[in-house]
Specification:
The protein is of the alpha+beta class and about 140 residues long. The protein is built from four helices and four strands. Strand 1 and strand 2 form a beta hairpin. The radius of gyration is 24 Å and the shape is elongated.
Length: about 140
């Protein structure tokens, strides 16, 4: 007899016995359109990883005129954010804290941290985006 035994662990990786897992599952025919969409999404993910590396993708959307961005278990939103970079300017201040931010601001340019130098560069050409608001933690 070839194949997996009924009482052996299922080969799908569920950890269940084959007889309680995949033994009686019917093989379904996946529509060609679904397969094509899946292939396209895989290719898109490969291109994203080639461009940005193994970082997590940005999770954001526009909702009722506000940019909503998920980071970890928190949702951030602000109607003044137009791009992800706008969000980052406020987010880094939230992560490092107001005290650290104010200390860095008072330092001469050549002694500021690289994070503060990055944040200062675009702010010289546009106005601040306003205070960050956190909706809730999940």
């Amino acid at each position: 007899m070839s194949g997996i035994g009924r009482n052996e662990k299922c080969s799908c990786g569920s950890g269940r016995k084959f007889k309680h897992c995949c033994l009686n599952k019917k093989k379904i025919q996946v529509p060609l359109e679904v397969l094509q969409n899946f292939k396209e999404s895989q290719e898109k993910e490969v291109r994203r990883k080639e461009k940005y590396g193994l970082v997590r993708p940005i999770i954001s959307t526009d909702y009722q005129g506000q940019k909503v961005i998920a980071v970890g278990e928190r949702l951030y939103f602000n109607p003044k954010w137009k791009t992800f970079v706008d969000f980052l300017h406020d987010y880094i201040k939230d992560v490092f804290g107001a005290a650290w931010w104010n200390i860095e601001r008072s330092k001469p340019s050549n002694l500021k941290s690289i994070v503060h130098q990055w944040a200062d560069a675009p702010m010289n050409t546009k106005s601040k985006t306003g205070k960050m608001r956190v909706s809730y933690s999940l």
